[in-house]
UniProtKB/TrEMBL annotation:
<dbReference type="InterPro" id="IPR018062">
    <property type="entry name" value="HTH_AraC-typ_CS"/>
</dbReference>
<keyword id="KW-0805">Transcription regulation</keyword>
<dbReference type="Pfam" id="PF12833">
    <property type="entry name" value="HTH_18"/>
</dbReference>
<dbReference type="InterPro" id="IPR050959">
    <property type="entry name" value="MarA-like"/>
</dbReference>
<dbReference type="InterPro" id="IPR009057">
    <property type="entry name" value="Homeodomain-like_sf"/>
</dbReference>
<dbReference type="InterPro" id="IPR029442">
    <property type="entry name" value="GyrI-like"/>
</dbReference>
<feature type="domain" description="HTH araC/xylS-type">
    <location>
        <begin position="8"/>
        <end position="107"/>
    </location>
</feature>
<keyword id="KW-0238">DNA-binding</keyword>
<protein>
    <submittedName>
        <fullName>AraC family transcriptional regulator</fullName>
    </submittedName>
</protein>
<dbReference type="InterPro" id="IPR011256">
    <property type="entry name" value="Reg_factor_effector_dom_sf"/>
</dbReference>
<dbReference type="InterPro" id="IPR020449">
    <property type="entry name" value="Tscrpt_reg_AraC-type_HTH"/>
</dbReference>
<keyword id="KW-0804">Transcription</keyword>
<dbReference type="InterPro" id="IPR018060">
    <property type="entry name" value="HTH_AraC"/>
</dbReference>
<dbReference type="InterPro" id="IPR010499">
    <property type="entry name" value="AraC_E-bd"/>
</dbReference>
<dbReference type="Pfam" id="PF06445">
    <property type="entry name" value="GyrI-like"/>
</dbReference>
Length: 288
């Protein structure tokens, strides 16, 4: 089964089990032989949405269709789509559709529809992706970390604020000064500990490659020996980085005989002005 087929099979599984109240990321990820973290990460990169958000939006889309096309009681529709009370259903429904369920039934305004997802490979031959495959021994990074719940999208909201904080308090400048390892630049390191895979937690480090004793106020993390796919990123932050991640998962992985290895992934930020149109950075993904 190809990478695209396996992701599509997982999405089809979601659609076929939207009425299951206990539908979990773990169940879905098994359908594409992926870890929960990497499936959630891939899904978010491709769709700009978390698994939870997609399930909620699809359920509320289908609930709206039933409201306008059937005479079923609103309370029955609420229970059917996983809401324990009419009040919680009405609150979620209004947030998506800008209407109450009663107003939707009376057809007093437009509804917001989220359609079933279909994953497709895009043919993008005009703009090549520059990358290289390298093997690298284990190395140490030092820095600061925060832990996020990736199942509810906490990482998507929290990581940009984390970067703002390390720039504001001087940590970023200190990491630049301490950087004496083989990789030049400040790193964003995304990692999931084996013990945390069932909890939905991930660690995100802002760090730099460093050889020597760990300085005060810093923690250390060992990046394991890996075969890496290293992608060039050209353009201002954050859009250039986000666009490259999307191209990697929507174009590069489907077209190449590799899969993510599941260990720590890196974003490498050089010391130039990140707002510059020619700013250079990199994405490092361990592959197998």
């Amino acid at each position: 089964m190809s990478w695209v087929d396996s992701i599509q099979q997982a999405i089809d599984y979601i659609e076929n089990h939207l009425l299951d109240g206990d539908l979990s990321v773990e169940q879905i990820a098994k359908k594409c032989n992926s870890s929960p973290f990497h499936f959630q990460r891939t899904f978010s990169i491709l769709t700009d949405s978390t698994i939870g958000d997609y399930i909620r939006r699809r359920r509320l889309t289908l609930a709206a269709q039933e409201l306008i096309n059937t005479n079923d009681k609103i309370i029955d529709i609420a229970y059917k789509y996983g809401y324990e009370t009419p009040e919680s259903f009405a609150k979620a429904f209004r947030k998506q559709h800008n209407l109450s369920p009663k107003e939707a039934r009376k057809k007093l305004g437009p509804l917001q529809s989220y359609n079933r997802l279909t994953i497709k490979i895009k043919l993008e031959g005009a703009i090549p992706m520059n990358y290289k495959i390298v093997e690298k021994d284990a190395f140490q990074v030092i820095g600061v970390k925060r832990t996020y719940n990736y199942k509810n999208g906490d990482n998507i909201r929290g990581i940009p604020q984390f970067w703002n904080d390390v720039h504001a308090d001087g940590t970023n400048d200190r990491l630049v000064d301490l950087n004496n390892g083989d990789i030049q630049g400040v790193l964003g390191v995304c990692s999931v500990d084996e013990n945390e895979k069932q909890t939905g937690l991930m660690d995100y480090w802002i760090a730099s490659a460093f050889k020597g004793d760990v300085p005060n106020s810093m923690d250390a993390f060992k990046i394991p020996a890996s075969k890496w796919a290293i992608f060039e990123v050209h353009g201002p932050m954050p859009h250039a980085m986000q666009d490259t991640w999307k191209k990697i998962y929507s174009e590069w992985f489907p077209s190449n005989p590799y899969n993510p290895a599941g260990t720590a992934e890196l974003e490498v930020y050089t010391n130039d002005n990140p707002s510059n149109a020619n700013y250079y950075s990199e994405i490092w993904i361990p592959i197998q």
